[in-house]
């Protein structure tokens, strides 16, 4: 597994991958900016209009409480872009990864597995749907875990574990679906759940590093292509020709 991670790291900086890397980073930055600004605007609305609306609903007795809450939200709004960039990064990379699945996988397969049959490109719609599902599920899990951040950092542990499970799940299934049907890919992931989750920890650690995490789609996909190849074992169609040639020589 460590060897697969090292190979993925070395390949994302290789010349053939640089174009994909810059496209991936550019798209990720655009999405992060849009979502973070949206979060900041939402919090600003809660701090201004929301306070007036809540006081009208609850009555003047809650004015002091709502004013303090509005002040806290105002500070959060000021940090909206930064916090959005941090907490939304795994969701962003999930969506970006779905758009560059085949570009990354093709490079990895050609360089490291030239004797294997190449995978079949995923339909754009299928890959995008998988990415959107993972992104939305990631945001949902993070919203649920967010209150626990205040309790001795428990929320950050939950974030990390959830990220490992969600991203490991998505990247492995995307790699597997190049060779199997979606149902077979999901079944294979479940059969190797412990290994896929452990591999997901590597991706979770990578996406936790600021700036570097912009390359997560490339690292995660390249890494999981290696993991899929190792878990799938030697392909039958590659073994049988060798056996036939041995029989003929006898």
TrEMBL record:
Does the record carry Membrane as a key word? yes
Q: Which InterPro entries match?
A: CysZ/EI24
Transmembrane stretches in the record are 20-39, 68-89, 139-167, 196-225
Question: How does the record classify its membrane topology?
Answer: Multi-pass membrane protein
Q: Does the keyword Transmembrane helix apply?
A: yes
Q: State the compartments where it is located.
A: Membrane
Which UniProt keywords are present, listed alphabetically?
Membrane, Transmembrane, Transmembrane helix
**Name of the protein in question:** Sulfate transporter family protein
């Amino acid at each position: 597994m460590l060897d697969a991670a090292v190979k993925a790291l070395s390949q994302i900086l290789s010349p053939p991958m640089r174009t994909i890397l810059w496209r991936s980073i550019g798209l990720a930055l655009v999405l992060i900016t849009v979502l973070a600004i949206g979060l900041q605007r939402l919090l600003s609305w809660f701090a201004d209009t929301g306070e007036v609306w809540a006081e009208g609903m609850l009555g003047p007795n809650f004015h002091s409480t709502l004013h303090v809450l509005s002040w806290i939200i105002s500070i959060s709004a000021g940090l909206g872009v930064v916090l959005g960039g941090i907490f939304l990064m795994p969701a962003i990379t999930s969506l970006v990864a779905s758009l560059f699945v085949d570009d990354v996988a093709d490079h990895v397969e050609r360089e490291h597995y030239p004797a294997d049959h190449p995978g079949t490109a995923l339909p754009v719609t299928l890959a995008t749907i998988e990415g959107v599902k993972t992104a939305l599920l990631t945001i949902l899990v993070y919203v649920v875990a967010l209150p626990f951040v205040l309790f001795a950092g428990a929320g950050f542990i939950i974030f990390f574990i959830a990220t490992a499970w969600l991203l490991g799940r998505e990247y492995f299934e995307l790699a597997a679906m190049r060779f199997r049907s979606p149902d077979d890919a999901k079944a294979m992931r479940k059969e190797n759940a412990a290994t896929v989750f452990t591999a997901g920890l590597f991706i979770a650690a990578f996406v936790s590093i600021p700036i570097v995490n912009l390359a997560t789609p490339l690292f995660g996909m390249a890494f999981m292509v290696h993991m899929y190849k190792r878990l799938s074992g030697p392909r039958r169609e590659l073994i049988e020709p060798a056996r036939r040639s041995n029989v003929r020589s006898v």
